[in-house]
Design goal:
single chain; 387 residues; alpha+beta; eight-stranded mixed β-sheet; 6 helices; 22 strands; globular; disordered N terminus
């Protein structure tokens, strides 16, 4: 969804401030938290290494994670004919120095694209719609980028990962899914692309019945009587890119009306139609309507403000263990099923948790179960029927 974000770009020297006899050049008229972290580290390094140059010029350049979310900054230093650099990133809500060298050239070698800090000593650049290793100039394919997902640093302001265990005396489940395995695509190289990605998951789902939606693409296969969709495929990236354009997605995201109009334009260009089935009645979400739509074979799109998604690691007779992902802010996901879990506890009490089975559009947890009633605001939810 659309939300307010700060506008950041490649920064040039605009303000000069004096730091203990050194000259510090920054593009910001107001020193931000990341700048303060850098300045403190610079003071410590200057004292430790005995740097005596009267002037250190510093240029500040944005750094992104592999999802192209702003994560921090590279500070490129020049003094006495030498070069140095520092990396300050935020992976857990706090800015910290990850690398600091007074005599080394910044690894990105002043490339024009978006600088991506994968992890210490691992770097990429997003340039000309592709990922490039700055040192070797080699293009990195999408699958290799996906493989980096579990190891890569991620911007820490919106996503929190963790785990939990629930102990019980009895556990019963009512569950339904549109397929044994559903699409779980992730956008490559696009900012704020959760809505176009959700749309692509919908398109991929219906391509099983209408191949013209993604010509030449086989969305899955039948195995042992079950249909298994591909969870990722390079053929889907152009679909996400087209939907990104049709929906008018920008640095603030995508509105609900933009999502619908973009889907209508994409489907109409393939000589098909699309209809949206609301699950809201008098501004309130109707879970039974959502179940009914899913059972009729139609996937959902969910627009949320904050959410928790869980993925089960193990389910035993007396306890379950799962990973969770908490997402702050507005996000869009695709719903492919539901699950109601009723727990009976040793003290005689019971509890029922209700979930929508989702494709999140995020590498952190591509698929899982969205908790409908925990730390979330569901802004809209509707079925998307392409025919």
């Amino acid at each position: 969804m659309k939300r307010a974000v700060s506008s950041l770009c490649v920064l040039a020297v605009a303000l000069i401030a004096v730091l203990g006899g050194m000259t510090y050049a920054s593009a910001d008229t107001v020193e931000e938290e990341c700048d303060l972290v850098f300045r403190q580290a610079l003071e410590e390094v200057i004292q430790a290494e005995g740097v005596t140059s009267p002037t250190i010029e510093v240029r500040k350049h944005p750094l992104y994670d592999i999802d192209l979310q702003l994560m921090g900054f590279a500070y490129c230093m020049a003094y006495d004919g030498q070069e140095g650099y520092a990396v300050v990133v935020n992976t857990d809500g706090v800015f910290r120095v990850s690398e600091f060298y007074m005599s080394a050239q910044v690894p990105f070698t002043d490339r024009a694209g978006q600088w991506i800090y994968v992890q210490p000593f691992s770097y990429l650049v997003w340039e000309n719609e592709q990922y490039i290793e700055p040192e070797t100039e080699k293009v990195v394919d999408s699958e290799s980028v996906y493989a980096l997902g579990d190891k890569a640093f991620r911007a820490g302001s919106t996503v929190t990962m963790g785990s939990n265990t629930i102990y019980y005396t009895n556990r019963t489940v009512d569950t339904f899914s549109l397929a044994k395995r559903c699409p779980a695509y992730v956008a490559v190289g696009l900012n704020n692309a959760c809505a176009p990605t959700a749309g692509a998951n919908i398109v991929g789902y219906w391509t099983r019945l209408f191949p013209e939606l993604i010509p030449g693409f086989t969305p899955g296969s039948t195995q042992l009587g079950f249909y298994l969709y591909k969870e990722s495929a390079s053929e889907v990236q152009p679909v996400i890119q087209e939907l990104y354009t049709l929906m008018g997605t920008d640095d603030k995201g995508t509105t609900i009306s933009e999502f619908k109009s973009g889907m209508q334009s994409y489907v109409a260009a393939r000589s098909r139609e699309v209809h949206f089935f609301s699950t809201f009645l008098f501004d309130s979400f109707n879970y039974n309507d959502a179940k009914r739509i899913l059972k009729s074979g139609i996937p959902l799109v969910l627009f949320v403000d904050g959410c928790e998604v869980i993925s089960y690691n193990s389910i035993k007779d007396d306890h379950e263990y799962y990973q969770y992902m908490n997402v702050q802010g507005c996000h869009t996901m695709t719903g492919f099923g539901y699950q109601d879990v009723t727990y009976e506890f040793s003290n005689g009490s019971t509890r029922t948790d209700s979930f929508i089975q989702v494709a999140t559009g995020m590498l952190d947890m591509r698929k899982g179960y969205y908790n409908l009633y925990y730390s979330t605001q569901l802004d809209d939810c509707f079925g998307v029927h392409i025919y």
